[in-house]
Design goal:
single chain; alpha+beta; BirA Bifunctional Protein, domain 2; 4 domains; 21 helices; 18 strands; globular; ATP-binding; protein biosynthesis; histidine-tRNA ligase activity; HisRS_anticodon; Anticodon-bd
């Protein structure tokens, strides 16, 4: 039953996606914007079930045109289109250039409003029929598997303690540098998000159309910040923002890659002198990584202007800069040969240009590399490249003044694929595997960011720009490392902040325990007791040990008659009697001593 219901839910989701796409096409047509290549997948799939190609049994120019248009669309539900698509991908550029030029058949596209309206009506009917079937199945009792959605997870108290400790340290650094906190909605208008992330735009989560605004879950915190600045006419801001974002990615849970995860951003908006705020962002990263003490790291830096100049010097057409940049960005995960192949076969870069790019992206260093590139015969003739190198030279000077130059690596392979970057880009990488138990785990990048001077202007009616630079800390990867250390027994955490446990050695002391708890709470002391009326003494002491509660107030009949109570040190098991009226002051004194010992490293 559960399996059939899951299949039905999947069909409803797929049918809903199709209806939303058709409605969007209809709305676009009604606004006079045309159909924007709205292809009739049903007719194309039906045609390709009988023929190998669009115009029959021979590949032709219309096949190439349709393949380009379908590249960004979802046709995964159409068997014969997928088969044809795989055939088209197998052709080389030389073979494609020899295809005959036939006339494109009329059946490919929706070419009238009436046809599109009919198609919407038909598909909506199918969707309603599926939903009615779901209601029928829901009428009886259902069995299903309890689990979190793919790419998400729950967090137990130990894991949340680790997370909160990490975030506290990060926020301390952010506030030390004068950052203010903001928050934005978890979902945005879809138009706000689209067109900002390059090839990663396909990972945006679209929300179901409720008959109102077309919405998507936020992909990151940077684009919402730009929208916030433009909407509120803000020209200067130093802000931090810690919140969940959502990506329809293939999750890798053990490496800290999820579909729902936290981002932790620090950004500086405003017109300032070159590289001054940029250098401070790098300083912020080093302070955070030093505070977390997660391992040895290096901060890679590069510049988008230098990358564009490098592509120009190597013979890459200007309209291919962004897509080539996205491919170079994969060098941290793939070998050069795979990246080179993608550049040539998928991005249209010539083999000679790809080889010249390969010579540059293998370079990394510091000031000496800057001087080498300033003298480079090819780069020195390209204005963008020279501007980028000069900016990196200034950045390194400022990093030296901040005392972090030894942590900086000028690396020409660093690209960062997001389209909105315009200047310096950087990424923090752990240089050594993290030892967890008896195993070593490679973590990779744990922070990244850069300058994006044109993003805010995209949302302003007058295209008014607000230059910005920022960094995002990869807290999920940091959490994953620390959680693995916890599981391996390399670290321990205390999930409760309780300092005092009020216990009773005999029966019928609930009222007295509650009075003492109230006194301690009113004095600001973190306190708890058993919720049982007559708990066993052994169970109370075991609770203290298991939860690392340092002190216990032990009540006894003879002690109360004498006007005293016992204070027990849970670790040493030493007990002292103190006057009942002095209990609060004595507890505060002992807590202060415990905190002082912890600060001094005493046990």
């Amino acid at each position: 039953m559960a399996a059939s219901q899951e299949d039905l839910l999947l069909k409803i989701q797929e049918q809903g996606d199709l209806v939303r796409k058709l409605k969007a096409a209809k709305e676009s047509n009604e606004r006079g914007k045309g159909f924007k290549e709205v292809y009739n997948f049903e007719e194309i799939d039906k045609h390709l079930s009988h023929y190998s190609y669009i115009c029959g049994y021979v590949p032709s120019k219309p096949d190439v045109d349709v393949a380009k248009a379908l590249k960004s669309l979802d046709f995964s539900n159409y068997k014969y289109i997928k088969r044809w698509w795989n055939h088209m991908r197998s052709f080389s550029d030389t073979e494609v250039s020899l295809f005959p030029d036939f006339r494109q058949p009329n059946f490919l596209k929706y070419n009238s409003k009436k046809i599109l309206e009919s198609q919407v009506k038909e598909e909506v009917s199918k969707l309603l029929a599926l939903k009615a079937q779901l209601v029928t199945e829901d009428a009886g009792p259902q069995k299903f598997t309890l689990k979190t959605p793919k790419g998400t997870r729950d967090y137990n108290p130990q894991q949340m303690t680790i997370r909160n400790n990490v975030l506290d340290k990060i926020i301390t650094v952010f506030r030390r540098h004068g950052a203010e906190c903001i928050d934005t909605p978890v979902f945005e208008l879809k138009d706000v998000l689209t067109g900002k992330y390059g090839e990663d735009s396909k990972l945006i989560y679209d929300l179901k159309d409720q008959g109102g605004e077309i919405l998507s879950l936020r992909y990151d915190l940077t684009v919402p910040l730009a929208r916030y600045l433009a909407m509120n006419k803000i020209t200067t801001l130093k802000r931090y923002h810690i919140a969940k974002v959502y990506r329809r990615d293939n999750p890798a849970m053990t490496r800290g890659r999820y579909r729902e995860f936290y981002q932790c951003d620090f950004d500086i908006a405003g017109v300032y002198d070159p590289m001054v705020p940029d250098a401070e962002c790098l300083k912020v990263v080093t302070e955070i990584l030093e505070a977390l003490d997660i391992g040895q790291y290096i901060l890679k830096v590069n510049h988008r202007r230098l990358l564009d100049g490098m592509f120009e010097a190597c013979g890459v057409p200007a309209d291919k800069f962004r897509t080539t940049c996205s491919t170079v960005d994969k060098l941290d995960k793939s070998p050069w040969e795979e990246v080179r192949t993608e550049m040539i076969n998928e991005k249209g870069v010539s083999p000679d240009a790809a080889d010249r790019i390969g010579e540059y992206v293998r370079l990394n260093g510091s000031t000496e590399l800057v001087e080498k590139l300033l003298k480079d015969e090819k780069l020195s003739k390209v204005k963008a490249a020279l501007e980028g190198v000069e900016a990196i030279k200034t950045l390194l000077q400022y990093c030296e003044l901040f005392g972090i130059k030894d942590k900086i690596l000028f690396d020409l392979s660093l690209a960062r694929g997001l389209d909105y970057y315009t200047g310096v880009i950087y990424e923090a990488v752990l240089t050594q595997p993290i030892k967890i138990g008896n195993e070593e785990q490679t973590v990779g990048s744990i922070a990244g960011g850069g300058r994006y001077d044109n993003l805010v202007g995209m949302f302003d009616s007058k295209n008014k720009q607000v230059p910005c630079v920022g960094v995002s800390i990869g807290v999920e990867r940091i959490f994953s490392v620390l959680e693995a250390k916890l599981a391996a027994g390399d670290i321990t955490v205390r999930t409760s902040d309780i300092d005092v446990y009020v216990a009773s050695a005999q029966k019928n002391f609930l009222e007295e325990r509650m009075k003492i708890c109230a006194e301690l709470w009113d004095a600001g002391i973190k306190t708890e007791q058993s919720y049982k009326k007559n708990p066993k003494m052994l169970n109370q002491l075991q609770h203290c040990e298991e939860n690392k509660i340092p002190l216990a107030v032990v009540l006894g009949d003879s002690e109360l008659k004498r006007g005293v109570v016992k204070i027990r040190n849970i670790t040493t098991r030493e007990e002292d009697e103190v006057p009942r009226n002095d209990l609060v002051q004595e507890i505060k004194k002992r807590i202060d001593n415990l905190n002082l010992n912890q600060l001094n490293g005493a046990t």
